Structure formats: structure tokens, C-alpha cells
């Protein structure tokens, strides 16, 4: 198996290759003055089981095109198989036709990858895991929540309450609680299908005087999380920490999160960020060793 670390995930790709003890094929990459991407593999990939590691966090369109260029190039140059490791799968939040006539974006993305020769996808904490089964490629979804929970455990945060957002998030807090053992709960949310704004339902939570960790799959604008922090603070939590798999932190979201009175925020290297200190490389390497996504 060989590993190609894509331009958006060079460090992570090298870490995955290190765990697998695999040959790395580097990408010579440049961006033309008009913004178009140039890709060249610096070594042969012919007849190799090829793993391309490329996240599609913002700038998602550029990162996605680079991924398509790499996959198609690998197919043309005779790769035996192509697995795309896409830690953050772009467009996965538009996973339903919320209003008539809307595009099912994630389906389009997967169809493009398939057309470019991708045989299977590995991703981390997709927004709607149940939808992945309906797409036209084998997709294996892994969860980084236990890694985040373990990080907090190792920091000495004992028996915190694990909280997640949205009803489907209850699985997230349960996963964390298996490691942290301080109990779990969730805050119900509602998303406005036109504006995309998320509101939190009022709910009394058992947070008074306790350390609380809020777990979520993604923080984008930070709006949802800041509302959650306020609610939990107002209800008397002692300390509040954030563990989120994909820290997109658009614009000044990072500063706004820290300014909201949170006691710590940690993410993974699914998305390069100064807060993305928990590596998912061992998780991906273990899954790749088990075989291609099926
Ligand atoms: C919602 O279902 C997700 O789990 C996130 O809470 C949400 O997408 C985050 O978006 P933002 O940071 O823009 O509020």
C-alpha cells in the first residue's frame, strides 16, 4: 500500500504513512495565478493499492478539485485500487432535500469521486452517517470522539458530564461517556431550513457545579456552540470544555469561541488548525490495515 498525502493534508498523510510503514508518494503542487491547481506525483504508483489523504475542509472547492485531480491521475497512471481518505467530507451537511428542488450535494461529490476512479472512501464523523449507506461507493465512517474523550481524560478532567448537540448527537455523548464515565446528556436543536440558523431548545441540564465537555462533529461559524456554552454557563457549570472533530472555525470563530468563556477547546487533525492537536492517524491506519472500505 502506498500513501499520497494531498496538499490539504500533508502532515496527516505523512503520519498515516508512518503508522502503516508505507511508501509515500509526494505531490508536487502549485497554484496558477488564476487559482487553478497543478498536481504531479513524484514517483510511480503503477499497480499499487493507493491511499490518497486529502481533507475537503475550506477552501472546500479547491481541496475537492485537487482530490479529483489526484484520483483521476492515479487511475490514469495505473493504480491497482484507490482509497480516498477524506477526514472532513465537504458538502455532507446538505444531506437531504430539506426544501423541494434542492440539490443532494454529498451525493454529487461521491459520484464525481467514483467517476475519477475512487473505489472506496474513508471519512471521520460525517454529519449524517446513515446517509452514507445510500451513496454509490463503499464508505467507511470512523469516529474520533473516543480519541477526543481520551485526550480530556489524560488531561486529568475527572468524571465530567459529556454533552452533545441535537437529538442525533446523543450517540456522540454516549461514545464519550464510555471513556469519561461522568454521565451524558444532550441539548435538542432545530435548524431553520431556509437560513440554516440553529436554535437550541430550552432544557434543564445537570451541570451545576460540574465540569462539562461539549462534544460535536463540526464547529463552523461557532454560532451553535456559543449558544450551548451560554446555556450551560447560565445553568451554573464549573468549567466548560469543547471537543469537536472538525474545527472549521470560519472567520473569527476561533477567537469568538475562546472569548465565550470556555476553559479549553480541542479538535483533531482532520482539519489543520492550531487547536487540532488530537491526531486521527492511528485510527485511519488501523482501519486501512483491516482492508479497503466495504
Ligand atoms: C449541527 O447539526 C452540527 O452538529 C453543528 O453543531 C453545526 O453544524 C455547527 O455549525 P455552526 O458552527 O455554524 O453553528
In round numbers, the mean pLDDT is 95
**Ligand set:** ribose-5-phosphate
| General shape | globular
Strand and helix order: EHEEEEHEHEHEHEHEEEEHEHEH
Q: What structural category do the secondary elements indicate?
A: alpha/beta
Percentage beta strand? 15-25%
User: What does the radius of gyration come to?
Assistant: 20 Å
Instruction: Specify the oligomeric state.
Output: single chain
Biggest sheet details: 6 strands, parallel
Number of strands: 15
List the total number of helices. Answer: 9
Task: Explain briefly what this protein structure is.
This protein is of the alpha/beta class and 294 residues long. Helix content is 31%, strand content 24%. It contains nine helices and 15 strands.
Describe the protein.
- With 294 residues, the chain is α/β, with parallel strands linked by helices.
- Helix content is 31%, strand content 24%.
- The protein has 9 helices and 15 strands.
- The strands form 4 sheets. Strands 2-1-5-6-7-8 form a 6-stranded parallel beta sheet, with helices on both faces.
- Strand 5 (49-53), helix 2 (60-76) and strand 6 form a beta-alpha-beta unit.
- It is globular.
- The model has no long low-confidence stretch (mean pLDDT 95).
- The structure holds ribose-5-phosphate.
List keywords for this structure.
294 residues; alpha/beta; 6-stranded parallel β-sheet; 5-stranded parallel β-sheet; 9 helices; 31% helix; binds ribose-5-phosphate
Amino acid at each position: 500500500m502506498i500513501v499520497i498525502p494531498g496538499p490539504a493534508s500533508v502532515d496527516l498523510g505523512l503520519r498515516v504513512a508512518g503508522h502503516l510503514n508505507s511508501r509515500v508518494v509526494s505531490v508536487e503542487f502549485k497554484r496558477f495565478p488564476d487559482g487553478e491547481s497543478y498536481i504531479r506525483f513524484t514517483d510511480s504508483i503503477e499497480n499499487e493499492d493507493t491511499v490518497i489523504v486529502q481533507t475537503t475542509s475550506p477552501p472546500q472547492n479547491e481541496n475537492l478539485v485537487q482530490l479529483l485531480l489526484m484520483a483521476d491521475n492515479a487511475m490514469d497512471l495505473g493504480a491497482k485500487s484507490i482509497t480516498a481518505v477524506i477526514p472532513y467530507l465537504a458538502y455532507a451537511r446538505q444531506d437531504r432535500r430539506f426544501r423541494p428542488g434542492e440539490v443532494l450535494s454529498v451525493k454529487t461529490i461521491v459520484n464525481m469521486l467514483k467517476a475519477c476512479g475512487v473505489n472506496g472512501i474513508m471519512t471521520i464523523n460525517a454529519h449524517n452517517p446513515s446517509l452514507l449507506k445510500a451513496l454509490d461507493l463503499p464508505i467507511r465512517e470512523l469516529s474520533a470522539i473516543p480519541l477526543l474523550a481520551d485526550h480530556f481524560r489524560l488531561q486529568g478532567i475527572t468524571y465530567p458530564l459529556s454533552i452533545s448537540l441535537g437529538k442525533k448527537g446523543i450517540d456522540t455523548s454516549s461514545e464519550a461517556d464510555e471513556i469519561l464515565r461522568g454521565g451524558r446528556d444532550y441539548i435538542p436543536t432545530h435548524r431553520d431550513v431556509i437560513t440554516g440558523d440553529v436554535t437550541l431548545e430550552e432544557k434543564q441540564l445537570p451541570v451545576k457545579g460540574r465540569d462539562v465537555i461539549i462534544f460535536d462533529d463540526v464547529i463552523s461559524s461557532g454560532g451553535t456552540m456559543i449558544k450551548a456554552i451560554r446555556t450551560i454557563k447560565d445553568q451554573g457549570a464549573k468549567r466548560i470544555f469543547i471537543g469537536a472533530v472538525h474545527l472549521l472555525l470560519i472567520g473569527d470563530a476561533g477567537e469568538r469561541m475562546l472569548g465565550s468563556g470556555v476553559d479549553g477547546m480541542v479538535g483533531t487533525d482532520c482539519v489543520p488548525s492550531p487547536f487540532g492537536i488530537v491526531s486521527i492517524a492511528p485510527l485511519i491506519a488501523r482501519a486501512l490495515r483491516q482492508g479497503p472500505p466495504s
